[in-house]
């Protein structure tokens, strides 16, 4: 049996606003607030469960997307005037990268989590 990541908790300052941000930018589906979590489905096997917490360390979340999804997400980033850049240390030049024959970019969510979208897997050989 293949093993899949089922969900991960994403700490934030406002779980509802965070869930709506990911829905708006990525096109993920905000399901509902359940107990202490705002649940957003990424795909059939993965959800992001946003949970309010006063203090937390910002994390990095990378999503592999198709070329058309990349274009759609980039358009939503631009439409919402969100700064983005080609690398994790450069999220403000409004440029993308072309690593490994694909496209990628980095931007931050309202909680300062670093988000990455890529169209090609990293080559690790």
UniProtKB/TrEMBL annotation:
- The segment(s) forming the VOC domain are 4-120
Q: Which CDD domains match?
A: ChaP_like
Top-level division of the source organism's lineage: Bacteria
* SUPFAM superfamilies found in the cross-reference section: Glyoxalase/Bleomycin resistance protein/Dihydroxybiphenyl dioxygenase (SSF54593)
* One Pfam match: Glyoxalase
Indicate what this protein is called per its UniProt record: VOC family protein
- What is the taxonomic lineage of the source species? Bacteria, Pseudomonadati, Pseudomonadota, Gammaproteobacteria, Alteromonadales
């Amino acid at each position: 049996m293949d093993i899949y990541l089922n969900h991960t908790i994403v700490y934030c300052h406002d779980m509802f606003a965070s869930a709506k941000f990911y829905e708006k930018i990525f096109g993920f589906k905000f399901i509902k607030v359940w107990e202490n979590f705002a649940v957003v489905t990424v795909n059939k096997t993965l959800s992001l469960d946003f949970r309010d917490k006063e203090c937390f360390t910002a994390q990095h979340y990378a999503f592999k997307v198709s070329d058309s999804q990349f274009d759609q997400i980039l358009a939503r980033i631009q439409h919402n005037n969100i700064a983005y850049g080609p690398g994790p240390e450069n999220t403000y030049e409004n440029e993308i990268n072309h690593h490994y024959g694909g496209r990628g970019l980095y931007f931050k969510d309202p909680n300062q989590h670093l988000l990455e979208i890529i169209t090609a897997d990293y080559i690790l050989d």
